[in-house]
Amino acid sequence: MRGGRCATVEPFSYSDREASIRALHGVQTLFMVSASESADRLNQHRAVINAAAEAGVNHAVYTSFAAAAPDATLVSGDVEAITGTPPRSFETFLRETA
User: What digits encode the pLDDT tens for the residues 12-61?
Assistant: First the structure.
């Protein structure tokens, strides 16, 4: 805690839009950790950012994973193979949603 501020953890489900919006209501900064490996990860992340935008979140900090690239040796690093979209597509979506 610094300057009288603290962090609050609010768990919610990617698939429950209304619960996501409720959990994010009043949040100024969202710290979003990349979801586990999933073919639907891009849509899951988009759902969180859309809910954050609707809830009025001012700032989002997103953690991706190391060495994300089309030729990554980790399965989760090959975003294009998993999602069918270019590796930076979520980051682009995040910027465009701001």
Answer: 888 899 999 999 999 898 888 876 677 777 788 888 889 999 999 998 88
Task: Give burial (CB, 10 Å; 0-12/13-18/19+) of 90.
Answer: buried
Three-state helix/strand/coil letters over the chain: CECCECCCCCCCCCCCHHHHHHHHCCCCEEEEECCCCCCCHHHHHHHHHHHHHHHCCCEEEEECCCCCCCCCCCHHHCHHHHHCCCCCHHHHHHHHHC
Q: How far apart are CA 83 and CA 70, in angstroms?
A: 11
pTM above 0.90, yes or no: no
